[in-house]
């Protein structure tokens, strides 16, 4: 049944991902594609929506994907699918935090725990880097790399939005302003191109 599969899939993602929502992105993409729940382009769209809506990124993704899959059973199915996927992604962290809070004082000076955390940091950065490369590939060269991409207006608009957002981020422009401006530019270019 799809609801149990949504719960178990997102429970696995939540249980084996360290580093937050962006570190979960490669796992979410892999699982969603493996289950044929949506295409890579749809995942990119869901990432954009999840990133620009309030709340934690991974929870927004799980909720949106669960709703999307559950909607085959109607509106109630969409709500229940969103609930199952969201509960699945949140529950492992909740359980782990309860356990850690209970035993943290005993192990906070442990070299094993410290070494484990030191080893996890580069892995998390690797997962986030993998997600960035995968998304960039899909956005900038969706049909594979060839010299013909440089003749596409969409490539230049995407690159300009990316560079503009990057510069605005380094100039300390508020993220909400960046998201709103990029969304408006994307909508306008979508109608014009």
Q: Notable features of this structure?
A:
single chain; 193 residues; mainly alpha; 80% helix; globular
Characterization of the model:
Helices cover 80% and strands 0% of the residues. The chain is an all-alpha fold and 193 residues long. It has a domain at 2-110. Helix 1 packs parallel to helix 5 and helix 2 (21-34) runs parallel beside helix 4 (57-70). It starts with a helix and ends with a helix. The radius of gyration is 19 Å and the shape is globular. It has eight helices and no strands.
Q: Level of helix content?
A: over 70%
Structure summary, number of beta strands? 0
**Biggest β-sheet strands, sense, barrel:** none
Oligomeric status of the shown chains? single chain
- What do the pLDDT scores average to? 83
Shape: globular
What is the first-to-last residue Cα distance? Answer: 41 Å
Number of helices: 8
Structural class: mainly alpha
Task: Sum this structure up briefly.
This protein is mainly α.
Topology overview:
Elements: H1 2-15, H2 21-34, H3 40-52, H4 57-70, H5 74-107, H6 111-140, H7 153-170, H8 175-192
């Amino acid at each position: 049944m799809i609801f149990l599969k949504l719960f178990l899939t997102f429970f696995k993602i939540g249980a084996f991902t360290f580093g937050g929502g962006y570190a979960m992105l490669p796992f979410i993409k892999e699982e969603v594609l493996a289950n044929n729940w949506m295409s890579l382009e749809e995942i990119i769209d869901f990432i954009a929506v999840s990133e620009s809506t309030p709340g934690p990124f991974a929870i927004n993704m799980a909720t949106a994907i669960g709703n999307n899959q559950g909607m085959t059973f109607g509106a109630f199915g969409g709500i229940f699918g969103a609930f199952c996927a969201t509960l699945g992604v949140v529950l492992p962290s909740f359980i782990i935090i309860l356990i850690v809070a209970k035993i943290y004082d005993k192990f906070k000076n442990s070299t094993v725990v410290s070494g484990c955390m030191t080893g996890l940091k580069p892995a998390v950065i690797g997962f986030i880097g993998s997600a960035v490369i995968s998304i960039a590939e899909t956005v900038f060269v969706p049909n594979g790399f060839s010299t013909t991409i440089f003749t596409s207006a969409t490539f230049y608009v995407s690159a300009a939005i990316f560079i503009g957002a990057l510069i605005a981020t380094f100039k300390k422009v508020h993220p909400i302003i960046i998201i709103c401006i990029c969304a408006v530019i994307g909508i306008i270019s979508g109608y014009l191109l």
